[in-house]
Amino acid sequence: MTPLIDRLRSRDDWRLTAQRRVIAEVMTGQHVHLAAHEVLERARAILPEVSQATVYNTLNELVALGELVELTHADGRKRYDPNVGERHHHLVCVDCGTMRDVDADDPSLAAAQHHGFDVLSVEVTFRARCPDCA
Amino acid sequence: MTPLIDRLRSRDDWRLTAQRRVIAEVMTGQHVHLAAHEVLERARAILPEVSQATVYNTLNELVALGELVELTHADGRKRYDPNVGERHHHLVCVDCGTMRDVDADDPSLAAAQHHGFDVLSVEVTFRARCPDCA
DNA sequence: TCCAGACCCTAGAACAGTTCCAAGCCCGGA
DNA sequence: TCCGGGCTTGGAACTGTTCTAGGGTCTGGA
Predict the structure, then answer these.
(1) Mean predicted confidence (pLDDT) in B22-48
(2) Higher pLDDT residue, A20 or A107?
(3) Which pLDDT belongs to residue B106?
(4) Looking at beta carbons, which residues of chain B come within 8 Å of A103?
(5) Residue in B74, B120, B129 nearest the CB of A93
(6) pLDDT (mean) for B93-104
(7) Which of A48, B40, B63, B89 would disulfide-bridge A124, Cβ 3.0–4.6 Å?
């Protein structure tokens, strides 16, 4: 039993059905940054009758519950990261899209964190609320 | 005549047609981060017979030429930033998507750079090439 | 145990953003 | 003027995501 599934099971405002449990199982681990279609594939390997709509619904619900973070990838498809607890950032391969979590507090990445990647550029985005929307 | 249009005009591998000039005109300025449909709208205000396909083609070509940077926004649509010269990062409103350029070298944003925004979180992405793709 | 209501799941349709395609247009060079 | 290559166009196609309608499942109360 993983912490994620434990947390979900103990919520009384959210039913942990078989489908949802399988999706949570798939989303468990370090360096997991799956796109929806990959989640669907892996979930179906465990429970073949999971539907696409359920995967999308469940992923969105888990994001709303704060259990996943949605990442927008350059290829246009969203990826989901279960590592919400600790502050961390991302190392992304510009060719294949592979991602690694890195914990860096500044935009210069320590060599020990390179994971063998050849770093090309850094992109910093500040998520904020503008005066008009405040 | 703006520097961007000047640069484009002087390329001999790329014809600066009326449509392309209008699109470049629309993309000129500071804090310009337009999505394709906005570029189309504004371009048509100047030259009504510009087609959607041309806007997409031209934006992609300008990105390939290094004259624009493509930004992936959480809402799924790409935005284009003409500010390619100087290293800078982005301040994004989570509600309306408004963006501002900021020049920050670390993930703590100086108050002078806040543009009145209420900063919620910082996201750092290292663009890299993984060992398999190298 | 049975029932009702709430919640959940499914397949397929619908949607939005982007790209592809075939055809016609335009410009520069011969 | 004619020709060829590149550019543009509208519409179709494609892809990722969301919506919809209908049926199923679970839970608590009678």
Answers:
(1) 95
(2) A20
(3) 66
(4) none
(5) B129
(6) 84
(7) B89
> Burial of A84 by CB count in 10 Å (0-12 exposed, 13-18 middle, 19+ buried)?
middle
Chain A closest CA to B22's CA: distance in Å?
26
Half-sphere exposure of B122 (CA within 13 A, CB side): 21
| Torsion-angle region of A116 (φ positive above 0: left; ψ -120 to 50: alpha; else: beta) | left
Which residues fall within 8 angstroms of residue A27, CB to CB, at 6 or more apart? A4, A34, A39, A62, A68, A80, A82
Give the integer Cα–Cα distance in Å for B59 and A64: 34
Tell me, what amino acid is at A38?
Answer: E
Angle B96-B100-B103 from CA coordinates, rounded to 5°: 150
Strand locations in B4-104 (E): 34-35, 69-72, 78-81, 89-93, 99-102
Q: Which residue type does A31 have?
A: H
**What's chain A look like in SS3?**
CCHHHHHHHCCCCCCCCHHHHHHHHHCCCCCCCEEHHHHHHHHHHHCCCCCHHHHHHHHHHHHHCCCCEEEECCCCCEEEECCCCCCCEEEEECCCCCEEEECCCCCCCCHHHCCCCEEEEEEEEEEEECCCCC
Q: pLDDT by residue (tens digit) across A69-110?
A: 999 877 889 999 998 877 888 999 888 888 999 886 666 777
Nearest residue by alpha-carbon distance to C1' of C7: A15
pLDDT tens for A34-52 read 999 999 999 999 999 999 9
